[in-house]
Amino acid sequence: MTRLAGTFGRMQSMSIRRKMDLILFLVLVLLPLGLLIVGHASGTGTVNNVLVVFLTVSVILFVPISKGFSHMLALRSIRELDEQCQRMKLGEYTLEDLPPERGEEHDFMLLKRNLHWMGYAIASREKRLSRAMDSLADARSR
Predict the structure, then answer these.
(1) Could you tell me the pLDDT band of residue 93, with boundaries at 50, 70 and 90?
(2) Is the dihedral of CA 106, 111, 114, 116 positive or negative?
(3) 16-52 residue pLDDT tens
(4) From CA 118, how far away is CA 120, in angstroms rounded?
(5) Looking at the predicted structure, is the pLDDT value of residue 1 above 60?
(6) For residue 18, what are the domain limits?
(7) What is the 3-state secondary structure (H, E, C) of the chain?
(8) For residues 107-123, average pLDDT
(9) Which residues of 14-23 are buried (b: 16+ CB within 10 A; e: fewer)?
């Protein structure tokens, strides 16, 4: 189970393009290749049985697989970004630490970095404004 969790964690850090490449490779290359090998080794009757089983399992698992892929591809990152935006709306500009930049990053990480710096800019402007208001109040009281 730990190996599966590690693999899923590595997939989360992949770009959406890489995830789609992997999914399409599995579906469009490995599946037909497997059917071709089974068909060549066993004959057409076995291939028909494998296709019937595959279609049955596909229909049964369509919704869970769809939810899993959508979570893996985008929904997790979208939820994290939404939580970050909600914290900013509440005035919490101290955002989570981001990993160091590593060349070309996926779109969600770039958006997360932009939100992080936007929060930093807003927090620093609020501090400057607060200091300016304090100095103005001091000047008025003299």
Answers:
(1) confident
(2) negative
(3) 777 778 888 888 788 878 877 877 788 777 777 877 8
(4) 5
(5) no
(6) 2-141
(7) CHHHHHHHHHHHCCCHHHHHHHHHHHHHHHHHHHHHHHHHHHCHHHHHHHHHHHHHHHHHHHHHHHHHHHHHHHHHHHHHHHHHHHHHHCCCCCCCCCCCCCCCCCHHHHHHHHHHHHHHHHHHHHHHHHHHHHHHHHHHHC
(8) 85
(9) eeeeebeeee
Query: What's the number of domains the chain is made of?
Result: 1
Query: What is the identity of the amino acid at 20?
Result: M
Flag whether the pTM goes above 0.90.
no
Distance CA 12, CA 30 (A): 22
What would the two tokens of residue 110 be? 């770039």
Question: What own/partner pairs with CB < 8 Å and gap ≥ 24 does 107-110 have?
Answer: 107/15, 107/16, 108/16, 108/74, 108/77, 108/78, 108/80, 108/81
